[in-house]
Input
Amino acid sequence: MNVKNRIGLIVYVYSAKQSRFLKKYGILDYVSKRMHYAIIYVDADLADDKVAELKKLKSVRNVEKSPLMDLSTSFANNQSLDDDDE
Output
């Protein structure tokens, strides 16, 4: 089984109703009706092309890549709060 690397895109739309068409561009994961944004997941190698396509649409206000890939998830060297009390 071959697992593809995916990246999240945060797509800001003018109306939550307009977020239904995002299913064509990737896997639609979450839609915020109050904040007017949607989170979609696309293949990492196609992310730049999808961002360019989405920015051209009239109903899209802005597109951002999720910063999750840039964050460090290594917690092995962190000390606990109890160690500081000594």
